[in-house]
Amino acid sequence: MSEPTATPHTDLSIRAAELDAADELFKLRERFALPEGVVYLDGNSLGALPAAVPGRVADVVSREWGELLIRSWDESGWWTAPERIGDLIAPLVGAAPGRIVVGDSTSVNLFKALVGAARLVAARGGAESGAESGGEPRTELLVDATTFPTDGYIAASAARMTGLTVVPVEPAELPAALGPRTAVVLVNHVDYRSGRLHDLPGLTAAVRAAGALAVWDLCHSAGALPVGLDAHGVDLAVGCTYKYLNGGPGSPAYLYIAERHQAAFDSPLPGWNSHAEPFAMSPGYVPADGALRGRVGTPDILSMLALEAALGVWDGVDVEAVRAKSLALTDFFLECVEAYVPAGRVESVTPAAHAERGSQVALRTDDAAAVMKELIARGVIGDFRHPDVLRFGFTPLYVGFADAERAARTLAGILAA
Ligand SMILES: *Cc1c(COP(=O)(O)O)cnc(C)c1O
């Protein structure tokens, strides 16, 4: 860890040094190129730069593009990058190979997932479908009322297109809101504002028991904690790769399609890249098998291959160990805040219970925007969320306990001034 200002030898700073010394993930920080003197607690918005990325991007540009030119679609594996990189993300979210495809933004993948889910429900016949069995038709798209805004906007449009009605529901109220009219349910795994972790296994089971489909947004969980998509029977999921997966600004997102839905998944964006025989250039559309049918058009190769290189930081890393360190870091940060910050100046909106906490701490305070500006000026980078939230994201691969202590101490200094 860098020490830009002398660290006072408080009990907490001594403990931080001991915790870092005992941390088996501490050395992973060497896989990143982080500026000296900065405590980076915004990896839940833009992950840090993995050290292998600049060289790989330079090679893709100068050799694969510059020299090999069009041959690279085959010879450099460009064409198959979306599914190959999907298979690199798969173990991080508990998916088997062949279930994840990379490309487009999270917003676009949400559109594919939600319309695709509505079509799966509509296409189901027999006893499973309320309408077919003489019951009520499934007309409702339940949407996490605390969702990141883009999910809500896309859900509203997907509902209009598929004839569903959006029903906003607080995640805690979901089990009670499910019923014979529920078609699809969209939930954010971790609330981007508060850092609250929702119960993916329990809610997915409840959604499926109600005969509906569960779509999960993993933007704030993938790369920070185990997800278990296959094990928990998730139907569809999306996530971005520029947060805890460190893919770089605007790096492509991904779509997960459970194996049992792949044969019937009917993408609302059936571009030629998802065709069974894209180079047959035939006028009729025939979807490819598997998660490939989540592809749309020509992939953004430069971003995609930067992401592939970035995923190398996960070599040999156990997501369970990442989760354990994440909880220890957020616990320790909260303890330091409690010890250093004048009483009553901040209030944590992040759940204290481990089972309900993602990998960030959100603190509510007056003047949050000005406080964050000053924190950044002092080398502690977090972010501000309207109207009064300071967000601190803890990426266990490159954040240490001394970082957490320094962040809390710097915050206390600002709030005491
Ligand atoms: C970051 C984030 C997004 C971002 O969507 P983009 O299409 O990549 O801009 C969407 N949903 C959630 C829950 C997020 O946290």
Task: Summarize the structure in short.
Helix content is 35%, strand content 12%. The protein is built from 13 helices and 13 strands. Pyridoxal-5'-phosphate binds next to helix 5 and helix 6.
How would you describe the overall organization of this protein?
- This protein has 417 residues and is an alpha/beta fold.
- It folds into two domains: 8-31 and 317-416, Aspartate Aminotransferase, domain 1 (Alpha-Beta Complex); 58-314, Type I PLP-dependent aspartate aminotransferase-like (Major domain) (Aspartate Aminotransferase, domain 2, 3-Layer(aba) Sandwich), CATH 3.40.640.
- The protein is 35% helix and 12% strand.
- The chain contains 13 helices and 13 strands.
- It has helices spanning 11-22, 53-65, 72-75, 81-89, 106-123, 149-162, 174-177, 200-209, 259-262, 301-310, 319-340, 368-377, 401-416; strands at residues 39-40, 100-102, 140-144, 165-169, 182-188, 213-217, 236-239, 254-257, 347-348, 360-364, 380-381, 383-385, 389-393.
- A seven-stranded mixed β-sheet has the order 2-8-7-6-5-3-4, with helices on both faces. It has a four-stranded antiparallel β-sheet with strand order 9-10-13-12.
- The protein is globular, with a radius of gyration of 22 Å.
- 48% of the residues are buried.
- Pyridoxal-5'-phosphate binds next to helix 5 and helix 6.
